[in-house]
Design brief:
The chain is mainly alpha-helical. The protein has 4 helices and no strands. The chain has one domain. Helix 1 packs antiparallel against helix 4 and helix 2 runs parallel beside helix 4. The longest helix is centred in the middle third of the chain and has 24 residues. It is elongated, with a radius of gyration of 17 Å. This is DUF3817 domain-containing protein.
């Protein structure tokens, strides 16, 4: 059994899941801030948080053993890219996993 045939454990994607959530929430805060008056302090705090979470999501996707070009391209989309990449990686896991429900031993 090679390292490529073993599905990535769910815990290995925990950093990607966290960065995708932070990326989405920080984008929502920035958009609400723009709609309600554009306070510079909020933008100064959440802008860098959003940027770092976005870059971390791209890097975490690139390091995943099940990555594909499509998953990496999805990660590049600001705001929802981390969640889209995570979904693509989990679909790749589902396709690569052997059918365990067949009852064969």
């Amino acid at each position: 059994m090679t390292a490529d045939s073993v599905p990535a454990p769910r815990l290995a994607r925990r950093p990607l899941r966290a960065s995708a959530t932070i990326e989405l929430v920080s984008l929502a805060v920035l958009l609400v801030n723009i709609a309600t008056g554009n306070a510079r302090e909020i933008a100064a705090l959440f802008g860098p948080v959003h940027g770092v979470a976005w870059l971390f999501g791209i890097l975490a996707t690139r390091r995943d053993p099940r990555r594909s070009t499509g998953a990496t391209l999805r990660a590049i989309i600001p705001g929802i890219g981390g969640l889209l990449a995570l979904r693509a990686l989990e679909q790749a896991d589902a396709q690569a996993a052997p059918d365990t429900g067949s009852g064969a031993r």
